[in-house]
Fold this sequence. Notes:
Number of strands of chain B: 11
Radius of gyration of chain A: 16 Å
Helix content of chain B: 25-40%
Largest interface: A-B, 21 and 20 residues
CATH class of chain A: Alpha Beta
Number of domains of chain A: 1
Oligomer: heterodimer
CATH architecture of the largest domain in chain B: 3-Layer(aba) Sandwich
Number of strands of chain A: 6
Number of helices of chain B: 8
Mean pLDDT of chain A: 92
CATH topology of chain A: Rossmann fold
Helix content of chain A: 25-40%
Strand order of the largest sheet of chain A: 3-2-1-4-5-6
Low-confidence stretches of chain A: none
Distance between the termini of chain A: 46 Å
Mean pLDDT of chain B: 87
Order of helices and strands of chain B: EHEHEHEHEHEHEEHEEEH
Largest sheet of chain B: 6 strands, parallel
Strand order of the largest sheet of chain B: 3-2-1-4-5-6
Amino acid sequence: MASKNNMYVIVIGCGRLGSFLANMLSNEGHSIVVIDIKPIAFNALAPDQFSGFKIEGDATELGILKQAKIDKADVLIGATHDENVNIMAAQIAKNRFDVPRVFVRILDPNKESFCKTIGIECVCPTSMAAEKMITALREKPES
Amino acid sequence: MDTLIVGGGKIVYFLAKAFFSKGYNVTIINRKKEECSRLARQLKATIVFGNATDPQILKDAQTYSMDAVLAVTPNDEDNLVICQLAKLNFGVKRTLALVNDPDNEQVFQHLGVTTAFSTTHIISSLIEQRTGLEEIVGLFSVAEGKVNVTEVILSDDSPVLDKSLMELELPNDALIACILRDDKPIIPRGVTKLNVKDRLLLITMPENHGQVLKFLTGSEV
């Protein structure tokens, strides 16, 4: 990707989803900061793909978000396994630091409408998987 | 008044008891099963077992009928989501959240929580103000910290001894609400004079608190 399209992305949570996103986006030439409360999680970052920064800390702590230069971020992605951490960090990013794009991963489909109410874009793998499976079932009726 | 408390430990138990004594109805949501059964034995509250950041559990606890919701779990992110769900999904007017990171006080209020309070902040400001002067024997804040109520004992080197309140020229936005003299309360008037060992019940604002104390005791806070 051309450098003029370079985005500054903060990824919260370096689990399967977070590290995958961080590796890929960093490899594409974006500036990435990954935050995780457990330093061992950073082992999932691939040295040949990831060239961003890592911060060990709690992403709901304002000091940690400031350390990640959240005021300069173009995108914040909440990818921890705790959806409330994702939702809180996303709201701080959006409402307090005017981060233009904010995404969160949530697991409980019950919270999708809540995320819409507070104006946060959310991705719910649970309902996505369910929809895909239901569609697949309908496409191929038993023959 | 119908109140919902989310959390566990002693804080929930004693809050619930304090609310009962005021005649409030209390519902508690707790995510530990054993603690729920213990609370149910100890208190006359409605106990709901589950994760209060799940809208379904809040519905089970009849959050829509609550006058106030208090979130006092140890996790700031859970307290925020509980208060926001209560307000936005269930129309609760008054939400209160405990915050651990003092910076989150402002963040939470900005995000629609009615009152956010940080124990770190309360304790550190209490210590700060208490260690300032030996003569200050009690202090608490009301109206979310906008007004301080302090008890000050006048020592023999106080610059205001033998002056009447009229001649005192107390700084603005401060009031001597009551004087305890030999354990008798006096509601002072303009002509009341201040004596050594008088215990003054003082009302100040955080902005002029130090200034007023210095004025009454003569020493730097």
